[in-house]
TrEMBL record, chain A:
The chain crosses the membrane at residues 23-45, 84-107, 119-141, 153-171, 192-214, 269-286. It comes from Paenibacillus agaridevorans. This is Carbohydrate ABC transporter permease. SUPFAM superfamilies: MetI-like. Pfam families: BPD_transp_1. It is found in: Cell membrane. Belongs to the binding-protein-dependent transport system permease family.
Automatic annotation (TrEMBL), chain B:
Residues 89-304 form the ABC transmembrane type-1 domain. GO terms for molecular function: ATP binding. Belongs to the binding-protein-dependent transport system permease family. It comes from the Bacteria. CDD domains: TM_PBP2. Keywords: ATP-binding, Cell membrane, Membrane, Nucleotide-binding, Transmembrane, Transmembrane helix, Transport. The chain crosses the membrane at residues 28-47, 100-122, 129-149, 178-200, 230-251, 283-304. It is a multi-pass membrane protein. This is Polysaccharide ABC transporter ATP-binding protein. GO terms for biological process: transmembrane transport.
Length: 301, 317
C-alpha cells in the first residue's frame, strides 16, 4: 500500500526549538485528548459522589461529597459479580482458542508448497464480504443445540479473517532462511512453527490476543441473541439489562411529572465503571504492543 | 480441497508423480493444521449462507430448511411492500453517508497533527489517550453518552443551564440525536483510525522535507504539498473501502444509542432484522432483509474495488 522502499534516514536529528505553531498544534491535540478523557472523569466523579450532590447537578469532573456507597452496592450484587466472573473466564478461554485456531490457519497459508493455498485463502477472504446474516447464524446455533451455552459465545467467532490476514503477513515477513535451517536439522513443520516462528512473532501475537480479548469482553450482540438465561449473562449484557434499560426508561418517560428513578445515577455510574476498569487496567500494558502489530498488518495488508 | 487427493494425470512422468506424493506426505502437518480452521469456516460461515435459503421459503422452525415450503420471491415482495423497508434502508444509508462525511476526515487531520508533534512524551501520551475509546464497548459508550447528554443531570446540559439556556434535547429529538450519534462515532474511531495513516506517513522520504526546507517552505506548505500527497494512496483505499461498506451497518451502535423517541432515524437494517426475526419470529422475512443487504453490500464492495484498481491503487484483492 505504501512505498516502503524510501527509508527514512534518521541521521542527525537536530534539536529544534519550539515554535508558536508547535504550541498551537499541542493545544488542538490537547483538546482532543480532553474530549477522550472528560466522559470518564465525569462518570468516575458521579460514581463517587453523594446522592444529594448528583441530584442537584453539582458534579462535573470531580466527586462532590465523597461517597463509596454505590460501589459497595455493586460489589455486594451477587449477579453482577457472577457476570463479571463468567466474562473473565469466557474471555480467557475465547482468546486462547482464537489464537490457537488463527495460528493453525495462518501458518500453512504462508507456505508456497501448500496445494490449494489460493483456494483456501479465497474461501476465507470471501467471508469478509458476504455472510448468511443474523437469522441463519441464529438458526445454526439453535440447530447445534448451543443456545444458552457458553459454546455459542466461543465457537462462532473463533477466527477473524481480518486478524488471520494480519498474522499471515507477519509470518511471511519472517526470513525463510531461519525456517529452512530448522528443516535441515530435521524439524517438522509444527516443530518449526513452535520453536522458530512463534517466538519471533510475540508482538503480533500480543496484539491479536488483545483484539480477540477486547472483542469478547466488549461484544454483547451474540449474547443478546443466544443467551436467554440471565444467570449466564456476560457483563456487557448484564450492564445493558440493568443500566441502559433504566436510562432509556428515564429518558423516554420524562414527560411525566417526575421521572421515576428506577436506579440512582450513582449506582448506574458505578456499574459502568465496574465493567470498564478491567479494560482501563490492562490497556496501558498492551498498548505498546498493538501499535507495532497493527502497523505490520496495515503496511503489508 | 479434493485436488490434492486426485492422482496426477497419466501422461506425467512417474518420477514427478512420486516426488509430488512424497512432497505432500512431507507436508502432511500443514494440512493437519488447516483441518480445524477450514471446518470452522465451512460450518460457521458457509452453512449459514446455505441457511439463507429460507429467504425463499415459508420457513417453519419445526420443519427446518429441508422441510419448509419454497415460495420463491414472496418474502422479498412482502418486504418491498413494507414502508418500513424503505425507512430502514434510508436510515442505514443516511447514517453511513454522514459517518463517512464526518468520521472519515477526522483521523486524517488527527494523524497530520500527531505527525507534527515534536515533543515525544506528549505525542506518546496523546496516542495512548486517543486510542482508548476504540476499546470501550458500545454499551459503556451508551452509558457515557447518557451521562453526558441526558436532559436531566447530563453534564453538557448542566453547563448549558448554568449559562442560562434551556436544556437541549440531545437524545430525545431526532436531529439532535443524529449529531450525538455522529459525534460519538468520531469519538470512538478517530484516534484509532490514525494508526493506518501514521504507518503510511513513515513511508514518506525525509529528503522531500529537507528539499522543501532548502526552498524555504513553511510548515503548512509542507503538510499540503508533501505529507498529504504522501498518504493519498492510503486515503483513496480507505475511502473506497468505506464506500463499499455503505450498506453494512453494525448492530451494536444503533441498537444501544437508539431509543423509542428517535426511531425515525435510529431504526436501521441490522436492528430491523433483529426485531423482525428474533423478537417477532418472522424468520423468512428477516432473512430476506439480511440477504438483500448482503447482496447489495457485495455489489458495492466489488464496484468499489474495481474503482480502486482503476485509480491505480492496489485494491482489496
Amino acid at each position: 500500500m505504501v512505498g516502503g522502499e524510501s527509508m527514512t534516514n534518521t541521521s542527525t536529528a537536530k534539536l529544534k526549538r519550539i515554535r508558536l505553531s508547535d504550541i498551537a498544534i499541542m493545544i488542538i491535540v490537547g483538546i482532543a485528548m480532553l474530549m477522550c478523557l472528560v466522559p470518564f472523569l465525569h462518570i468516575i466523579a458521579v460514581s463517587l459522589s453523594s446522592k444529594q450532590a448528583i441530584i442537584s447537578d453539582q458534579v462535573t469532573i470531580f466527586p462532590v461529597g465523597w461517597d463509596w456507597e454505590s460501589y459497595k452496592i455493586v460489589f455486594q450484587d451477587a449477579r453482577m459479580l457472577r457476570s463479571m466472573g463468567i466474562t473473565i473466564v469466557l474471555t480467557a478461554v475465547y482468546t486462547v482458542v482464537c489464537m490457537i485456531m488463527s495460528i493453525c490457519a495462518a501458518y500453512p497459508l504462508t507456505k508456497r508448497q501448500l496445494k490449494g493455498r489460493s483456494f483456501f485463502m479465497m474461501i476465507i477472504v470471501f467471508t469478509m464480504f458476504f455472510s448468511g446474516g443474523l437469522i441463519p447464524d441464529y438458526l445454526l446455533i439453535k440447530e447445534l443445540g448451543m443456545l444458552d451455552s457458553m459454546l455459542s459465545l466461543i465457537l462462532p467467532g473463533m477466527i477473524s479473517a481480518f486478524n488471520l490476514i494480519i498474522l499471515r503477513s507477519f509470518f511471511t515477513s519472517i526470513p525463510e532462511s531461519l525456517e529452512e535451517s530448522a528443516y535441515l536439522d530435521g524439524s517438522s513443520h509444527i516443530g518449526t512453527l513452535i520453536r522458530i516462528v512463534l517466538p519471533l512473532s510475540l508482538p503480533v501475537l500480543a496484539t491479536l490476543s488483545l483484539f480477540y480479548a477486547v472483542s469478547r469482553w466488549n461484544g454483547f450482540m451474540d449474547a443478546l441473541f443466544y443467551i436467554s438465561n440471565s444467570e449466564m449473562y456476560p457483563i456487557q449484557l448484564k450492564l445493558y439489562q440493568v443500566v441502559m434499560n433504566s436510562m432509556v426508561t428515564d429518558l423516554t418517560a420524562q414527560e411525566g411529572a417526575i421521572a421515576t428513578e428506577v436506579m440512582p445515577e450513582g449506582l448506574k455510574a458505578a456499574s459502568i465503571m465496574f465493567a470498564t476498569v478491567p479494560i482501563l487496567v490492562v490497556y496501558p500494558w498492551l498498548q505498546r504492543y498493538f501499535v507495532s502489530g497493527v502497523m505490520v498488518g496495515a503496511v503489508k495488508g | 480441497m479434493d485436488r490434492r487427493a486426485t492422482p496426477a494425470p497419466n501422461n506425467s512422468l512417474p518420477l514427478v508423480k512420486r516426488r509430488q506424493a512424497t512432497g505432500i506426505w512431507k507436508d502432511y502437518q500443514l494440512y493437519l493444521l488447516l483441518i480445524l480452521p477450514i471446518a470452522y469456516f465451512i460450518l460457521f460461515k458457509y452453512v449459514p449462507m446455505y441457511g439463507a435459503a429460507i429467504a425463499f421459503q415459508d420457513y417453519s422452525i419445526f420443519k427446518g430448511v429441508t422441510g419448509s415450503e419454497w415460495i420463491g420471491f414472496e418474502n422479498f415482495k412482502e418486504l418491498f411492500r413494507m414502508s418500513q423497508f424503505y425507512e430502514v434502508v434510508r436510515n442505514t444509508l443516511m447514517l453511513n453517508f454522514l459517518d463517512l462525511a464526518f468520521s472519515f476526515p477526522a483521523p486524517i487531520i488527527l494523524a497530520l497533527l500527531l505527525n507534527e508533534l515534536s515533543v515525544v512524551w506528549f505525542k506518546k501520551s496523546a496516542q495512548t489517550l486517543l486510542y482508548l475509546p476504540h476499546f470501550i464497548s458500545w454499551i459503556i459508550i451508551g452509558g457515557l453518552v447518557y451521562q453526558m447528554f441526558s436532559n436531566q443531570g447530563g453534564l453538557v446540559n448542566n453547563v448549558v443551564n448554568a449559562l442560562g439556556f434551556d436544556s437541549i434535547p440531545f437524545l430525545t429529538e431526532k436531529n439532535h440525536w443524529l449529531l450525538v450519534y455522529l459525534g460519538t462515532g468520531i469519538w470512538h474511531s478517530a484516534g484509532w483510525g490514525t494508526i493506518i495513516y501514521l504507518a503510511a506517513l513513515t513511508g514518506i522520504s525525509r529528503d522531500l522535507y529537507e528539499a522543501a526546507d532548502v526552498d524555504g517552505a513553511g510548515r503548512l506548505k509542507k503538510m499540503w504539498h508533501i505529507t498529504l500527497p504522501g498518504i493519498r494512496p492510503t486515503i483513496v483505499v480507505m475511502l473506497i473501502m468505506q464506500l463499499g461498506h455503505i450498506m453494512t451497518i453494525g448492530f451494536e451502535r444503533p441498537f444501544v444509542m437508539g431509543n423509542a423517541l428517535v426511531m425515525d432515524y435510529a431504526e436501521v437494517i441490522s436492528t430491523f432484522v433483529y426485531k423482525a426475526g428474533l423478537q417477532s419470529a418472522q424468520f423468512s422475512l428477516a432473512t430476506a432483509m439480511g440477504l438483500f443487504q448482503a447482496l447489495v453490500g457485495l455489489v458495492f464492495v466489488v464496484i468499489a474495488n474495481s474503482i480502486a484498481k482503476r485509480f491505480g491503487e492496489q485494491g482489496i484483492w
